[in-house]
Amino acid sequence: MSKKIAVLPGDGIGPEIVAEAVKVLAYLRDEQGLDISMAEAPVGGAAIDATGVPLPDSTLQLALNADAVLLGAVGGPKWEPLPHAVRPERGLLGLRKRLDLFANLRPATVYPQLVAASPLKPELVSGIDILVVRELTGDIYFGEPRGVERLPDGSRRGYNTMVYSEAEIARIAHVAFKAARGRQKKVCSVDKANVLETTELWREVVTEIGRRDYPDVELSHMYVDNAAMQLIRWPRQFDVIVTGNIFGDILSDEASQLTGSIGMLPSASLGDKYGMYEPIHGSAPDIAGQGIANPIATILSAAMMLRYSLNEPVWAERIEAAVSRVLDQGLRTPDIYAEGTRKVGTAEMGDAILAA
Ligand code: NAI
Ligand code: MG
């Protein structure tokens, strides 16, 4: 049966970079017989301009009826004066919530051609291939009670609550173990079990599931403060890192910067039923409309979509290999440019990847 892809370009460079990923997908559809269809809808600021709200019902319905969502980025200075509740970013949060996308997958890989772009020494970064699996719908970001209260002495006190149910921990653990099976079969679960009871439960549940269902995968545990340190000290020790929402927020940003270039890094957000794929960067208003944005993160997001939602792992690998080949050819968008390489724009980079 034909697989439906909802294409949501969004704002800023979103439409420019998504167009290049769509080029690749259209080629697979038209020339390689892949049974997919694509339909586009506005989200974020583009949707506010067209309909008054960041996530119009028609866009939500398109996403709910699709097998996968490809998203560019949302937001920009034009909509910053708006109150938080109606900003472009709400469109994205609304999609994550309505599609119940509880697993955020962020690979951090370093292309050997770009090792010099990392802030770390080449011998530390070359060969990095980490997948951060972050739980996205629970933890201290959503726990109740929360708030800021006034104490009898007149001073204020703020509080949030860290909460994870066994079921929530189990479902993200399964995602991590399954992902590890297709990689180096190593999972490092990150927690703060020495201090926080919630994460003590996290460690127990992950351990039970690993022992019972994934004896072939090597499981280790690390406290989050040590994990933050180890990511800088010796990043190659990691394969899959699985962790909760708040630790994952911080560690996934840290891991992404090891590779040095935000325009290169894709992501997937998965639920039981849906998958949404987007570059990790934002709408880059400073370079929007100039045709110079790096489309690789978005094209690699489409590759993740082929792998996780469309059951086309071979095409995913071919796209990833094509990106590597184009880097070998010395083509670079300005964000990854270095002396001795050839500077190209967004469309030329997309065309070169398609050709490769
Ligand atoms: P940003 O990621 O948009 O840009 C940060 C820097 O990286 C800028 O200098 C930009 O030019 C550069 N950059 C980003 N992507 C690039 C690419 N593909 N090629 C070349 N250079 C690239 O983050 P910033 O500036 O903090 O946010 C801009 C807007 O994007 C804000 O409205 C923010 O709310 C929104 N945003 C949206 C996200 C999303 O849709 N998932 C995520 C992060 C920010
Ligand atoms: Mg973050």
Based on the model shown, name its key terms.
356 residues, alpha/beta, Isopropylmalate Dehydrogenase, 10-stranded mixed β-sheet, two-stranded antiparallel ribbon, 14 strands, globular, binds 1,4-dihydronicotinamide adenine dinucleotide
Low-confidence runs: none
Q: Classify the helix fraction into a percent range.
A: 40-55%
Q: Indicate the mean pLDDT.
A: 95
CATH topology name of the largest domain: Isopropylmalate Dehydrogenase
Strand order of the largest sheet: 2-1-3-12-11-4-5-10-8-9
Number of helices: 12
Radius of gyration: 21 Å
Largest sheet: 10 strands, mixed
Hey, roughly how much beta strand do the residues contain? 15-25%
Order of helices and strands: EHEHHEHEHEEEHEHEHEHEEHHEEH
Structure characterization notes:
The protein starts with a strand and ends with a helix. With 356 residues, it is α/β, with parallel strands linked by helices. Strand 11 (266-270) and strand 12 form a beta hairpin. 45% of the residues are buried. The protein is built from twelve helices and 14 strands. The longest helix has 18 residues, at 14-31. Helix 6 (166-181) crosses helix 7, helix 10 (296-308) packs antiparallel against helix 11 (313-328) and helix 11 (313-328) packs across helix 12 (346-355). The model has no long low-confidence stretch (mean pLDDT 95). The strands form three sheets. Strands 2-1-3-12-11-4-5-10-8-9 form a ten-stranded mixed β-sheet, sandwiched between helices. The site of magnesium ion (MG) has 2 residues, from helix 9. 1,4-dihydronicotinamide adenine dinucleotide (NAI) is lined by residues 13, 17, 73-76, 89, 92, 262-263, 278, 281-287, 293-294, 297, 335.
